[in-house]
Design brief:
Blueprint lengths: L1 E8 L8 H9 L8 E6 L3 E7 L12 E5 L2 E11 L2 H10 L9 H12 L9 E9 L4 E6 L8 E5 L2 E5 L2 H5 L7 E2 L1 H10 L13 E3 L4 E6 L2 E6 L12 H18 L7 E4 L4 H16 L6 E7 L2 H4 L11 H11 L2 E7 L1 H15 L5 H15 L4 E3 L4 H5 L8 H5 L9 H5 L4 H7 L1 H15 L8 H30 L4 E3 L5 H8 L3 H4 L7 H6 L6 H4 L12 H15 L12 H9 L2 H4 L10 H17 L3 E2 L1
Parallel strand pairs: 10-19, 14-15, 14-17, 15-16, 17-18
Antiparallel strand pairs: 1-3, 1-9, 2-3, 4-5, 5-6, 6-7, 7-12, 8-9, 8-11, 12-13
Helix pairs in contact: 2-3, 6-7, 6-18, 10-11, 10-22, 10-25, 11-17, 22-23, 22-25
């Protein structure tokens, strides 16, 4: 993947502002360690950092194409999986190509079809195109939001970038956080509200949206949304279509001019991706694929099963790797490096995140990058097919809130009374939930049970899934590793969206339709294995380390965290048995140890980013 940044200004001559543009670009060097480029005119300045995946010679950016007297310039982060088909269609319409790059395909597609090009794209992307003749900027983001894109308007300046850090590198954007931003961090986080940039007057292009910016201002348009309609296929046909859509998505996403691997947990989702990849490798005569998994020092001794994590991955990784004949490597992470990586994870995300779950993914990606540049991962099947335990928990289904945020009230008790009065945690979460439910595309005549499950799937796709996609993008790209997510192929998502819940959960199993679709792909014991998420450390040394780190922060009068929390309540919680035994306070992985680590991350973020609460 890559990193992009840019600046449009109607009053300042940007040809004199190259140092600022280059400073914005430099913050994204991890996303694009292989090359850097800029294009500057008086009104527009674009920057690009490149991770070479396809066409090393022809994919240099920003890329320029001329059509008569008009000039179009693109800076692009992403991958088009249907680039060959689009190239042939555009050639038939009279266009010539100078490279094999999907960047050129995307630019020419925009020149041919304008904003309508977005409907034709199969891929993950965030890009900007400057139209020099009309003096317009076009920004777009992929349908599910796999690739990030932020923007801010400051006076005559419009700024954009792949990550928040690229905007913060501009002197006009200060690290200021208001009540809404603080609520996103302290109560909603890590699952931010779509479009919310946390920092004041900073926004994110929403998934499935594009932005047009010209002298008349910012215009936000939605080009894709889930559509509810009756599902007419029977069970066997549905399973066959799910299988074919997933197989096609995996095989399309294997295309690269650099080494490709898969991330294998031994669960249903990653095992299916690996199986289809292995089949494609075999047919192409490429030998067995390389696979990678992550584990933690001490987990063999300290793993404790739970509702959310019923068994350890290690035996299942060996089972699937042996069955598929992959070349497997286990990346082992020890407690001290995991604790130290909490800070690196904050810098990668520019925000507090999923604590050691983020940190371990960063360390894992860094090791995988030593041997591969592209990886395929099994994220997002649980959101699309309803795999999380909360889809099957009546208390969660009956709660009028996000199922991963049912502990928000307990979190609020750890905040200072002044902060609670200012951000109004209960009201804030309730408003965000009401907004989300109001968006759900209803199906007339649907019975109440099916309607509620449709709501739950929508909440998971649009509110929880972005958290995992953000985590995967930031942690992997911080290591210069491109991770692709076949389950986010929009054709598969659109089809699965309208599969009735009774069919999705067929055979009395979570993700029953997916398991049935893969019945001739994976061994039976792998097919029926219970859902187990991305693994976390169970080593009590980790809890002890983050507890000590947080208690040191609480004893430091210069800590900016102290003004936001109820110090006595946090200290009592840290010293109690709750961190070792309490339920998840967010999602399904983040228990007491992760809550302590999250507060450590908030302190790191406040200090290193010099956050101003205003």
């Amino acid at each position: 993947m890559c990193g992009i940044a840019g600046w449009v200004d109607w009053e300042i001559d940007l040809t004199l502002e190259r140092p600022t543009l280059e400073a914005m670009s430099k913050t994204l060097s991890c996303r694009g360690p292989d090359a850097a480029g800029t294009w500057v005119s008086p009104r527009a300045a674009l920057a690009h950092r490149r991770l070479i995946v396809i066409d090393p010679e022809g994919g240099y950016q920003p890329m320029i194409r001329q059509d008569g007297n008009n000039i179009y310039i693109i800076t692009y982060n992403g991958e088009l999986y249907n680039a060959p088909e689009l190239r042939q269609e555009l050639k038939a319409r009279g266009h010539a190509f100078r490279s094999h790059s999907d960047t050129e395909v995307l630019l020419v597609a925009f020149m041919e079809w304008g904003t309508g090009c977005l409907e034709r794209l199969n891929g993950i992307f965030a890009f900007a195109i400057w139209d020099e003749a009309s003096q317009k900027l076009f920004l777009a983001r992929d349908r599910l939001g796999v690739k990030p894109l932020f923007y801010a308007r400051r006076g005559s300046a419009f700024l954009f970038g792949s990550e928040l850090k690229s905007l913060l590198a501009h002197p006009l954007v200060q690290p200021e956080v208001d009540a809404g931003g603080l609520a996103e961090v302290l109560i909603m986080g890590p699952a931010r509200t779509p479009g919310h940039g946390v920092f004041r007057d900073v926004a994110e292009v929403k998934p499935g949206h594009y932005i047009m910016y010209d002298r008349n201002g910012v215009h936000d348009y939605r080009y894709w949304a889930l559509e509810s309609k009756p599902h007419e296929d029977d069970l066997d046909t549905t399973a066959a279509k799910v299988r074919e859509l997933l197989r096609d998505a995996v095989e399309r996403q294997l295309v690269a001019d650099v080494p490709v691997c898969t991330l294998l947990s031994g669960g249903l989702d990653s095992s299916a991706v690996t199986a289809f990849a292995a089949g494609a490798f075999q047919r192409a005569g490429l030998g067995p694929p390389h696979t990678y998994s992550v584990d933690y020092a001490g987990n063999d001794l300290h793993f404790q099963p739970s509702e959310f994590q019923p068994n350890s991955d290690s035996p299942w990784v060996r089972r699937v790797s042996s069955f598929l004949g992959t070349r497997h490597r286990i990346v082992m992470i020890d407690t001290p490096e995991l604790v130290e990586a909490l800070a690196a994870a904050v810098r990668a995300r520019d925000l507090p995140g999923m604590a050691d779950v983020d940190a371990s993914l960063y360390l894992f990606s860094r090791e995988v990058k030593k041997e591969a540049t592209v990886a395929l991962s099994g994220e997002c099947a649980d959101e699309i097919f309803g795999g999380y335990p909360w889809f099957h928990n009546q208390e969660a289904l009956a709660a009028a809130t996000f199922p991963w945020a049912r502990m928000a009230g307990q979190r609020a008790r750890l905040l200072s009374p002044d902060v609670v009065a200012w951000i109004k945690p209960g009201e804030y979460v309730a408003e965000r939930y009401s907004e989300a439910v109001a968006e759900v595309p209803r199906l007339p005549g649907e019975d109440p049970r099916e309607a509620r499950m449709r709501e739950m799937v929508y909440l998971n796709i649009t509110r929880f899934m972005p958290t995992l996609l953000d985590r995967k993008d930031r942690m992997s790209m911080a290591a210069g590793l491109e991770v692709r997510v076949p389950y986010c192929d929009h054709r598969l998502v659109e089809y699965a969206w309208n599969i009735p819940w009774a069919m999705k959960s067929c055979d009395n199993q979570g993700k029953g339709i997916l398991r049935r679709a893969l019945s001739d792909v994976l061994p039976h014991d792998v097919l029926v294995r219970r859902k187990s998420p991305y693994p976390k450390t169970h080593n009590p040394a980790y809890l002890a380390a983050v507890r000590d780190r947080l208690l040191d922060i609480l004893d430091d009068p210069s800590s900016p965290l102290l003004q936001l929390i109820n110090v006595g309540a946090v200290r009592a919680m840290a010293r109690s048995s709750v961190p070792a035994s309490g339920p998840p306070w967010f999602g399904q992985l983040m228990g007491g140890a992760q809550l302590l680590a999250y507060l450590v991350q908030v302190d790191i973020w406040l200090r290193e980013y010099r956050v101003l609460i205003c």
